[in-house]
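Q: A small favour: would you put together sequence and C-alpha cells for a protein?
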Amino acid sequence: ASLLQERITEIYRMSKPVITIQCGNYANYVGAHFWNLQEAGFMYSSKEGGGGDREAEKEMLEIDNDVLYREGLTLKKEVTYTPRMVAIDLKGSLGCLPQCGELYGRNTVPKVGTVSMNWAGGHQVFKEEPFKKNEFLREMDNEAQNEEQNEKDIDNSMDSESKDETDTLYNLENQVSFWSDYLAARFHPKSVLLCDSFQHENTTHPFDMWGLGRGAWADGRGLGEEMEDRLRFFAEECDNLGGFQVVADYQDGFGGMSSSVMNLLCDEYSSKSLLSFPCGPADYSSYSVAEGGARLAGAVLTMASHLEAGVVTPLSLAKDWFPLSGRAVTLPNLTYSPSSHYSTSSVVALAMDTATMPYRRRRETGTVVTPGEVSQGLASHGRRVAAISADIPMNMKGVEYFESDLLSHTTPLLPGYTPSTATTNPDMTYTVMLTVRGMKSSSLYSKRTLPFQPCPSPTSYLDSCVHNAHPMSRPAGSFFTKPVNTGKPFPHIFSKKVTGYGSVGEEDRPASTGVSMASVLTTWEAGHIAESALRSLCSKAGRLSLGKVHRLGESGVEAEEWEEAKEKLAELAECYTESDMDY
C-alpha cells in the first residue's frame, strides 16, 4: 500500500506536458513572440554564490519549462531543448526559416560538379535568391558562429564569458515581413508544417474563406495525415500528457482548418484537456462588405466548432467582430500601430503567456493547476467562452491599485466587448483567474491596509481585494516574482512614460533607451466580459446572410451548417443569464 501511495504521489508531482498547436499566419506571429518570451525567461542554476544568492535564485525559478518543452538529440548527439509544438502555415510564409528548422542541419544546394557526377545528361540548377536577413537575425547568426568557434577553443570561450555584452537597441518595425524575422527560438524538424495547397498572400487564389481550410485538410495531399503523425510523435514522448493549447486564426481558411484539428484531437485524445485561443489581426490591408462578412462568418464558425472541445478564449486587438478600419483596442501605457502584426501580436502573446502561467508553475513555488482544472473552473454552468484582460505594465501607485477595484485597471483583449452590455444578470457568479507578474507577493502583503489585515496569505489578500469590489466573482489569484523580459527582439510598444525597468513614471524615457522588463496583470474569466463579446458576435451574425458572402458557400459551408453555428452560440449566450439559484 505504501509503495502504491508513493507511486501515486510521484505521478501527481510529475509535470503534465502540454502540446501547443499554432494554426494560421497571425497565430504564428503570436507564437513567435510566445516562444521568445519563454526562452527569455529561462534561468540556469549558477555554480557559485552563497546561501542568499541560492535562495534568491530559487525564488525566481518559478516556471516548469518541461510543461511546454522537450529534450532531444541531434544526429551529432547534441542535446536540444525545443517546444513541444506544431505550427501550420501556408507555402511561402516562412521567410528565411527552413521548414525543418535549424538545429538539425540545413538543406543545401548541391554543387554543379556533384550533379554532373551523378547525371550524364544536361542539367540546370535553379537557385532562389535568399531572403535578406535583418540586423537581429544577422546578430543571431554571428552569435551561433561564435559559439561554435568557442567550443573549439576553450580559452576563447572563457574569455567571451568574461566580456560585458551590450544589448543593441533594435527597431524592427519596418524590417518584419514574416514571423520568422524576429524568431529567436529554435524548433524541432517536426514542428513546422506547410499547407502546399495555397500560397501565402496570393491574391489570385486567396486562402480567405473558412471552408477552404477544411477542404485543404482533406484534399488528398496528406495534410491531415501528416498532422496526425506529428501530434502522435510528440504525444508518445509524454508519460502523463496534460492536454493541448491551440492558437488559431479565426478570420480566414485557417479557422476551418483548425476545426478539423479540433475534431482530430477530440477523436484521438478525448480524455485530454483542450484550451482554445482563436485569434485575429487588429487591422487588415483591405476592407469591403464582402471581406468583413467573410471574417465575421469565420469567427462564428470557428468559435462554434471549437466549443465542442472545451474552453474557448478569443484573443485580438480588433474592437469588432465585423472588422472596421481604424477600430482597435488600446491600452493606457502602450503605443502600437494596429496594422503591424509584429506589434499587435506581441500584446496578445504577452497576455496569453501571463494568463497561462498557473499551469506551468513549478510545484515547489506555489499551487499548481492543470489545464483540465482551468477548463473546469472557468466553464461553470456551461459558460465555455472566456475572456483575457490585461494591464501592461501595471500602473501601480500603491496598495490602492489592488484594494480599490483591481479589475478596473485591465483592458479586455477580444472583439465585441462594450461595458454597456456587459451583463444581463448582475447576480451571475463566475470564476476569475488573476495572475500578477513581476511583484514580490510578501512585499505587497506587508503593506495591506487595516481592513485586509485578517487575510492569512498574499493570495488570499489578492482574492479578497477582487471579491470586495466584485462580490459575485470567485477569484483565484497567483503571484510570480519575476517580471517579463521585454528586451530584443520584443517591439517598442511601451509609451514614453514607461521607464526602462517597466514602471510608469512622470518623465519621458530617453529615445535611446528600451524597456527591458515589465510587470503584467491578467484576468481570465467566463463572466460579464465574455458574455458581452459573445452577445455582440451573435447579434452581428444574426444580421449576416450567407448569400451576401457567396464565396463562403462555394468554399463548402452550407446554409444548414451556418444556421447551426449561430444557434449554438445563441444557446451558449443564455448560459450567462443563469445564476447559481437556477441549478
About this structure: Residues 6-12, 155-166 have pLDDT under 50 and may be disordered. Residues 484 and 518 are 5 Å apart (CA to CA). The two ends are 40 Å apart (CA to CA). The chain has 18 helices and 16 strands.
